[in-house]
Predict the structure.
Amino acid sequence: MLLAIPNVLAPAQVAEARQILEAAEWVDGKVSAGHQGARVKDNMQLPAESPAARQVGAMIAQALGSNPLFMSAALPLHVLPPMFNRYSGGQTFGTHVDGSIRTVPGTNHRLRTDLSCTLFLAGPEEYDGGELIIEDTYGSKSVKLPAGHMILYPSTSLHQVTPVTRGTRLCSFFWLQSMIRDNGRRGLLFDMDVAIQRLGAENPTHPSVVSLTGVYHNLLRQWAEM
Ligand code: NI
């Protein structure tokens, strides 16, 4: 499932994040690429220990924690600290798959990457190219969202960023381990949650709201890994 999550950051937060990130020290993105990624990766990144990355990362983590759509769709167990990348002057990231296991920087804690997140910090009108192309079960999807919006997609997907031929593409990207490892099961729970919310909003006293909420939680209880 590919899901766009609108307005993760408000315009004022995007502006603040950009001000902090623009003053930071950027490095060649190859530093964090694996063997396969390094051959196709051409961008700039902030080091994980960068104070700017930590500051804006904390802002994003806090915003996600109170975003009901993100919580329902991702059912996050552990979210890696947000990272940041920048593309300009023809920079690109060719087709690759993200590593399956990542270590939380500065710890021995390893996470399985179930979902990949890209949060756009520059508007689509600010640059040409820079589409995130994700190969989904039903074909390729091209993603280029307004600033402050985020795309959530399975980390199992092959994906690429097309060359940025004008302006600068600025994004945050990160991964998470979900309580529900299987994309199909997680998608079913999300669809069910959306339907229950809708039923509850239209008909709050309907007895099926309680029974379906019970089924939702009992499925989550059966499937969740922690
Ligand atoms: Ni990637």
User: Anything to note?
Assistant: The two ends are 22 Å apart (CA to CA). DSSP finds six helices and 17 strands in the chain. Residues 183-202 form the longest helix (20 residues).
